[in-house]
Design brief:
The chain is mostly helical. It has helices at residues 10-18, 23-32, 37-44, 48-60, 82-85, 88-103, 149-160; strands at 64-68, 76-80. A hairpin with a 7-residue loop joins β1 and β2.
């Protein structure tokens, strides 16, 4: 995998786990119901050694858990943990962005529809405490309790610059 980011930034931290060409596809497969090594390999086209490395990383991070499901010998299923399940909104956002901006309207390879109505999902958007949709201008980015001095300086600098 690529060199790890050292910034105290949530995006850099996420990229340390998901910043390669394969990890999101493995997570996608878990959400689609694939649990076996061979299924994931077949459905993604990933090389065996790369899949093994990425699965180990997802296990270490607590995103997947491995369960022995072998009746005669050892066979494993890879199952999303609660931490893994919490990735669903991110996966939906990537899905919606890809459909809209990579493939474009009328060329979407996979649609997201509401089971009860069959209607497409509305695009995900941040909402405020009252449920109203927020724009970028409505959201502040502030240092958190784990922010490094560099992060604090960077965010202070960002607040001095006018947002477009």
């Amino acid at each position: 995998m690529a060199k790890r980011h050292t910034h105290t930034c949530p995006i850099a931290g996420v990229l340390n786990i998901f910043g390669d060409n394969w990890t999101w596809l493995i997570v996608r497969e878990a959400f689609y119901g694939a649990t076996r090594f061979s299924e994931i390999m077949r459905n993604t086209g990933i090389a065996r050694n790369v899949l093994s490395e990425r699965l180990d990383r997802l296990l270490e991070e607590g995103i997947l858990r491995r369960e022995d499901v072998g009746a005669n010998g050892t066979r494993y299923a890879y199952i999303l943990t609660d931490k893994g399940e919490s990735l669903y909104p991110i996966l939906l956002a990537l899905h919606q962005w890809g459909n809209a901006h990579v493939y474009g309207p009328g060329n979407e390879p996979v649609l997201l529809v509401e089971k009860a109505t069959g209607l497409p999902l509305r695009p995900l958007a941040p909402t405020g405490s009252d449920g109203a949709t927020l724009s970028r201008a409505d959201i502040l980015t502030e240092p958190g309790p784990g922010a490094s001095l560099a992060t604090q300086r960077r965010l202070a600098e960002a607040t001095r610059q006018p947002q477009k």
